[in-house]
TrEMBL record:
GO terms for cellular component: cytosol. InterPro entries: HAD-like_sf, HAD-SF_hydro_IIB, HAD_sf. The lineage of its organism: Bacteria, Bacillati, Bacillota, Bacilli, Lactobacillales. This is HAD family phosphatase. PANTHER family: HAD SUPERFAMILY HYDROLASE-LIKE, TYPE 3 (PTHR10000:SF8), PHOSPHOSERINE PHOSPHATASE (PTHR10000). It comes from the Bacteria. GO terms for molecular function: magnesium ion binding; phosphatase activity. Coiled coil: none annotated.
Length: 287
């Protein structure tokens, strides 16, 4: 082996040893759902379920941090048989454990009136969360299609811009989000905006994120961010990545998420989560 290759090999092995040592200090795994644990389908693969359940034997907590509402997270909590799980929902706007709401932050939908009116003009689907239930602002071609395909879809209830205080708003489109760019730019600093490629956008209160949601967990559980492993795939995971002891992006993650992570798995989505959990479990001593 030439000197250059030898140096690369030595440096890589040192970096691997440092990461393995750091894994021994992990007390909590915080994991995104869509795009990370789930890419297609609504239930977790059995191999991943087994590894998540094994974490308990090593006194390691498993926490969901997702843009989803509780109603769409609950089936996964049941599948894991962890009804008392700590959950960060709606990208940090709602934090709960079991049946107890720990934190909830709403914002006035009046802020989004111009944006929603513009989205309406392009027949984009606008969904929103009110009282833990998701509604569709108006019927669109896409919502009609989904209603036909699924046999059901969110109930139609027009937004009341004068009075409503919401947890989150989603605008869904088929590769046309760029049409809203100007209005979205006007909202920067007023709300927290997460883009999902050119297909959609999620909006919550300006002061919340997955990272602020995990702040509540750390205070309640007396945990340090340095003992957290965060796993994700998108821009809304980056603030949490930067705060956590170990940040892991799955192979199908966005370029920005990968750049912010310390580890990028070789496999995508649930397979990638299973891969990193196996590595984590291999470093642990039964407690």
């Amino acid at each position: 082996m030439n000197k250059k290759l030898l140096l690369i090999s030595v440096n890589w092995n040192k970096e691997l040893c440092v990461k393995m040592e750091k894994m021994k200090t992990i007390k909590t795994v915080v994991c995104d759902i869509d795009g990370t644990l789930l890419e297609k389908g609504e239930m977790l693969p059995s191999k991943v379920v087994t590894r998540i359940k094994l974490l308990k034997e090593y006194k390691i907590d498993f926490v969901f941090a997702s843009g989803r509402l509780p109603s769409r997270i609950h089936p996964l909590v049941v599948q894991l048989q962890q009804e008392d799980m700590f959950v960060v929902a709606c990208n940090g706007a709602l934090v709960y454990q079991g049946d107890t709401i720990i934190f909830e932050h709403v914002f006035p939908v009046k802020l989004l009136e111009s944006l929603v009116r513009l989205a309406d003009s392009f027949d984009m689907t606008v969904l929103y969360s009110l009282g833990g239930v998701e509604y569709c602002h108006r019927e669109t071609a896409a919502s009609k299609r989904k209603r036909r395909e699924r046999g059901d879809y969110f109930a139609i209830q027009p937004l009341d811009f004068a009075t409503m205080q919401l947890i989150k708003v989603n605008i869904l489109t088929e590769n046309a989000l760029y049409l809203l760019d100007e209005e979205l730019q006007k909202l920067e600093g007023l709300v927290n905006i997460t883009r999902y490629g050119n297909q959609g956008v999620e909006i919550v209160h300006k002061d919340v994120s997955k990272k602020t949601g995990i702040d509540h967990y750390c205070r309640l559980k007396k945990r340090e961010f340095s003992t957290i492993m965060a796993i994700g795939d998108n821009e809304n995971d980056i603030a949490l990545f930067k705060a956590s002891g170990i940040a892991v992006a799955v192979a199908n993650a966005s370029s920005d998420a990968k750049r912010s992570a310390q580890i990028v798995t070789s496999l995508s989505s649930a397979d990638g989560v299973g891969e990193i959990l196996a590595q984590l479990l291999d470093t642990q001593e039964r407690k």
